[in-house]
Amino acid sequence: MADASVGTGRGAGGGRVAVVTGASSGIGAATVRALAAAGFRTVAAARRVERCEELAAEVGGRAVQLDVTDEDSVAALAEAVPDAAVVVHSAGGALGTDRVADLDPDGWRRMYETNVLGVARVHRALLPAMRRSGDGHVVVLGSIAGFEVYPGGGGYTAVKHGVHALCRTLRLELLGEPVRVTEIAPGMVETEFSLVRLGGDAQAAAKVYEGLTPLSAADVADVIAFAVTRPPHVDIDHLVVRPVAQADAAHVHRR
Ligand code: 8X3
Which UniProt keywords apply (predicted)? Predict the structure, then answer.
C-alpha cells in the first residue's frame, strides 16, 4: 500500500473530497488507499461496485457505481457527490494489439468511449462541484502512449494522444479558475491492464512484465497523492513515471 504521508505530511488532504473513477482495481484502487491515507474523504467509483464497497469499508470512504460511458450513471455520480474537489480519472485502458491493417473498429471505438469521452463526461458533470470547492483538481491517468507510438499500439496510442490533447485543452479552458489539471503518464505498470488488453490471456499478460520490475499501482498512486497535496498555486502539469528498465514504449531492458 502506498504511504502517501511520505513527503506530504499525513492529513495533507485536509478532508477534501476526492472522487476516483476506475477504483475497483489497479491504479484506481491504489489511489483511493493513498488519498485516504493522505487525509482525503474518498469516493471510489466503478462499474464493479461490490469491489468499491469493500475498498470503501477498508479506508472509511464511500462507494458509488459508475459507468463512464453512460450519461445517466455519470449524472447520478454528480448528484451523489456535490462536494467533489479532486477528481482522479483512472477509468480506461487498452483493448488489443492490432496493427492498423488489422483494424478492429469496435475495440478502438470502445477505447475512445472510455478513455476520452469518459474523462470528458465525468469532467463536465463534476466541474461545478470542483469550482464550488474553491480549489478543484482534475487528475487524468494518461500514459506514455499519449506521446509515444509503437507497432501494434495504434488504437491505444491514438486514444491516449487524445487524452493528452484533452488535458492540454482543459489547462487552457480552465486558466484563471481555481481548478488544477494534472496528467499522469505512466509507463509499464503491472495491473489488470495487460490481461484486459490481451483478452484475458494470463500467460501472454505475464510475458509483458517478464525479466523486469514494472511499476506497481501503489507507485503511481504515490505520485498522484504527491500531485494533489501540493499548495493550491502549484500545478504538477504533466508527470511521466516509468520503471527504470523502460526507456520508452518500445525499449525495455529484460534480465
Ligand atoms: C501503458 C504504457 O508502457 O505499458 O499505458 O505501453 S505501456
Answer: Oxidoreductase
